[in-house]
Write a structure and sequence with these properties.
Low-confidence stretches: 57-65
Number of helices: 4
Helix content: 55-70%
Shape: globular
Largest sheet: none
Order of helices and strands: HHHH
């Protein structure tokens, strides 16, 4: 085990992996947060961002670029 802290991108990747899954995206923010070792508010912000991509079903992102732009936006929002 290394002693490096997880970056915000690492946390984002973990949460987005669950939010982009059909089954896991139905879990509560608190459960996803527990599984990813992040706060439930972090999950809520990302869920809100991923559910507001035009033309995409909830929990889906259109491109990898959009993922990082929106992840960065969610990080800056709170």
């Amino acid at each position: 085990m290394n002693c490096l802290r997880r970056t915000k991108k690492d946390k984002c990747n973990a949460v987005l992996a669950l939010l982009n899954d059909a089954e896991w995206s139905t879990w509560s923010d608190s459960e996803i947060a527990r599984r990813c070792s992040v706060s439930h508010t972090f999950v809520a912000k990302l869920r809100h961002v991923t559910c507001n991509v035009a033309g995409e079903p909830p929990g889906r992102l259109s491109t990898l670029n959009a993922t990082w732009q929106e992840c960065d936006g969610a990080k800056k929002a709170g």
